[in-house]
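Hi R.,

Here's the chain you asked about this morning:
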Amino acid sequence: MRKYFKKLPLELKEIISQAAKVSQEIQMPAYLVGGCLRDLILGVKNFDLDITVEGDGIIFAQHLARKLKSRLKIYVRFGTATLILNDRLKVDIATTRQEKYPYSAALPVVSSGSLKEDLKRRDFTINALALSLVADKQQKIIDPFGARADLALGRIRILHNLSFKDDPTRILRAIRFSQRLDFKIEPKTLALLKEAISAGALDKVNPHRMRDELILILKEQNPFGPIKQLGDLGALSFISTKLKIGKSTQGLFKSITKQINWFVKNFPARRQLDSWLVYFAALLETFTLPEIKVIICRLGLPKGDQKRVISYYQERDKLISSLSKKRRLPEQIFSLLEPLSYETIILLGAVSQNKNLKKHLADFLEIYNGMRLCICGDDLRGLGVLPGKEYQMIFAKVLAAKLNGQVRNRQAELALIRKLLQANK
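And the predicted structure, written out as tokens:
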């Protein structure tokens, strides 16, 4: 394993080193497990570490958090904790456990268990690996289910025949891992996956859990691949039985990817896009607004995400019609786009190929977005204007003048206000 560790960034090496010290100090065997170990073997970057502890994961996490001076979130019910070191780096720590499913698609009943039982509860063999954090002479990978062979063969394989019936969300994960890693789903696993879909296993899952798995898929670098495969398998009915994935969907996803890349390249200082939401909204392109509202309510999208999706479909036609015109004043562009989210703007640019619209979107993001006045209410009071509706009218006129390039600084704004007040006398 030393050859794999050499490839790790220094910050990850330091975390693993400190975790190994904690393991020795408090006499709790701890292991690197799951996806981070899988990606380490495959040479794939992964800044999320998963550590499983034989003993008490929360106590282990508290000790490690003190060493690393990190923030700590504790989930007592599950015996887990998360250390958050920065925006891109976190460490999930859990106590080794076993899980039993009282019925198909139920949440599992969790109890303490051995390391082998902990690995056995996982979704696929390639995620059922462990490595002791305390180095010994060999430091062998613990691989009770043939994960390394499956990694070498590029194969997705479940651990037991009831896996998809116990937790049907594994159907979506199987497709996601297959597409991301360019692995094949081995024949028996694929047969059981299709059997679970045909038996309606996905219909038994809480829609909110399905939403979370869908979001993970839409966050992938190439989300269309797994979406297309799931559509072909009939595994997207939890969104709607009317949803069809075809060439138009593929074209729209490509256009969205292009728009997102353009935004990230040209506006690196802006907030990070919720790219998944843009792709999700695109999936609903053929539905009516009432149908869309039903879908997003059933999936339990947070209110803010619901608002962004609905605002796009409410305003789309009007926005495309207005922004496709060549002659648009900056104040008109601002009034149309300022209330919208970046995600809505990205989707508008992806849906329409109109050159005028694309230029107006670019101008808004480059010039007008977030434009503010230099003057404030105190300035109006100083000029003898009493607080009231007149404030809003004056601010709107001054902002329009600023957007149109008629005023460029505080002095010019004040001069315009005096002119407006004089005209109203």
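The CA atoms of residues 323 and 359 lie 9 Å apart.

Let me know if you need anything else.
M.
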